[in-house]
C-alpha cells in the first residue's frame, strides 16, 4: 500500500475513533474542509505543516500517519524548528553536503536550496525520502523528537 493510501486509511480510523467528520476536523485544525477531504480520499498529501497539525491533534507520530510505523502511542512532541534550521542540523549531524543529499536522494537542487533558504517546506513524499535516506523517523527529520 502506498503512503497516500495509508495516510487516508489511518486518518479515517483516527477520525472515526473520535467521531469526527471532515468539517469538524478542519475546524479544529483551522484548515479548509476540502483539504481534509482530499487527504481522506487519498487524492493529495498534506504539506509538512499540516501533517504535523494532524499528528499533534491525534497525538501520534507523523510516521504512524504515513504508515511507516504501526505503533500508535499517545505522545506529545517538542515544537519543531523552522525546516531550514532543521535541514542545516541534519546536514551537520549526518556530515553530508547539500550536493551529496541531492545526488544520493534524487531531490532537486532547487527544492533543497528552497528548503535551505526557508522559502518552502518539503512535501510529505520528500520527508519520507529523507527519513529513508538518513534511516530515521519523519519526526526526527522534522525536528519534533530528539
CATH class of the largest domain reads Mainly Alpha
Q: H/E element string?
A: HHHHHHHHHH
Beta-strand percent range: under 5%
Spans of at least 5 consecutive residues with low confidence = none
Describe the protein:
The chain is mainly alpha-helical and 146 residues long. It has two domains: 3-65, Orthogonal Bundle (434 Repressor (Amino-terminal Domain)); 83-142, Orthogonal Bundle (434 Repressor (Amino-terminal Domain)). 61% of the residues lie in helices and 0% in strands. The chain is built from ten helices and no strands. Helix 2 (22-29) crosses helix 3 (33-40). The chain is elongated and about 45 Å long. The two termini are 29 Å apart. The mean pLDDT is 94.
Write the layout of secondary structure elements.
Layout: H1 3-17, H2 22-29, H3 33-40, H4 48-58, H5 62-65, H6 83-93, H7 98-105, H8 109-116, H9 124-134, H10 138-142
Helix pairs in contact: 2-3
Task: Record keyword descriptors for this entry.
434 Repressor (Amino-terminal Domain), mainly alpha, 61% helix, 2 domains, 146 residues
TL;DR of this structure?
The chain is mostly helical. It folds into two domains: 3-65, 434 Repressor (Amino-terminal Domain), CATH 1.10.260; 83-142, 434 Repressor (Amino-terminal Domain) (Orthogonal Bundle), CATH 1.10.260. Helices cover 61% and strands 0% of the residues.
Amino acid at each position: 500500500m502506498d503512503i497516500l493510501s495509508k495516510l487516508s486509511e489511518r486518518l479515517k480510523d483516527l477520525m472515526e475513533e473520535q467521531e469526527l467528520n471532515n468539517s469538524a476536523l478542519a475546524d479544529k485544525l483551522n484548515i479548509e474542509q476540502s483539504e481534509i477531504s482530499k487527504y481522506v480520499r487519498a487524492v493529495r498529501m498534506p504539506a509538512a505543516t499540516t501533517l504535523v497539525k494532524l499528528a499533534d491533534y491525534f497525538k501520534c507520530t507523523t510516521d504512524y500517519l504515513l504508515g511507516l510505523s504501526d505503533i500508535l502511542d499517545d505522545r506529545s512532541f517538542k515544537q519543531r524548528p523552522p525546516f531550514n534550521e532543521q535541514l542545516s542540523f541534519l546536514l551537520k549531524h549526518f556530515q553530508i553536503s547539500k550536493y551529496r543529499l541531492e545526488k544520493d536522494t534524487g531531490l532537486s537542487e532547487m527544492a533543497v536550496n528552497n528548503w535551505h533558504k526557508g522559502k518552502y517546506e518539503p512535501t510529505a513524499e520528500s520527508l519520507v525520502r529523507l527519513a529513508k535516506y538518513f534511516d530515521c523517523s519523519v519526526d526526527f527529520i522534522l525536528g519534533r523528537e530528539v
